[in-house]
Structures are given as C-alpha cells and as structure tokens.
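Hello forum,

I keep getting stuck at the same step: I have a sequence, I want structure tokens, and every attempt I make locally crashes halfway through. Rather than fight my setup again tonight, could one of you with a working pipeline run this one for me? It's a single chain of 136 residues.
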Amino acid sequence: MRGTTLLLLGATLASCSTAPQPVTRSAQGQRDFARLTAGKVAGPPLSCVRSYDTSDMTIIDGRTVMFRNGGGGTAYMVQLSDGCEQIGRGHYALSSRKFGTADTCTGDIEQVLDTVNRINVGSCVIQNITPFSRPR
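Reply #2:
Ran it on my machine without issues. Output:
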C-alpha cells in the first residue's frame, strides 16, 4: 500500500510544471493599460490599498487587473499569481477573501467564480500592488 501511495505521489509531482505560463494580453487589455497609465509614473510597490480605491476594476489580462480611485488620479496595478487566468472571459468574476483587514492587500486570496453555475473555478494570490500617479 505504501509503495502504491509513493508511486502515485511521484507521478503527480512529475506531472507538475514549475515553468511560468505565459499570459497573453489582448489588444483591448493593452489599450486599457495604456489608457489607465497615460501620463502617470509607477510608484514604489504597496502592501495594501484602501478598499474604496478598488471599486473601479479593469481586467488587463489573466494575471493583471487595474483599479482606479474615484477621482481618477491614481491607478493601481494588481498582479496575481497563477490560477485566475479565466477572469474577464465569459461569465467569470473575481471575488476577494480578506484576512485581518477590509483593505486589498498582497497575500489576499482571490477566487474566480462561475456566475452561471455559482461555483469556484480557480483561485490566486495578490502578489504585487503598484500605484501609477501623475508626476508632481
């Protein structure tokens, strides 16, 4: 029994790929990114963004979303780990799970929900949050 378990575990590990999968950005995603960052420069990475600054979301690609604050002065680029590549396709939505704060922070778990069947079809983690602001 132990030999079978080890054999199955070994086969499972051997089938995993550690190479990062390329993320393709659509022409629309590239235009959205250019529009949201036009005339702005990237600032130092943030650990958290206030939740009210994350209400206006634009999906750039399967690993990148942008948030704008209400005044449009700052845009926040949020980079996600593997697992949420389906966002922006069809009837899939991004849902957040927060731990310890209501803010959006690195390390937060994001889930991809199939809004038709009401099931979770993927999850990922916020890896980086980069603000884009107009130079002063």
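The chain has two helices and nine strands. If your local run keeps crashing, start a new thread with the error log.
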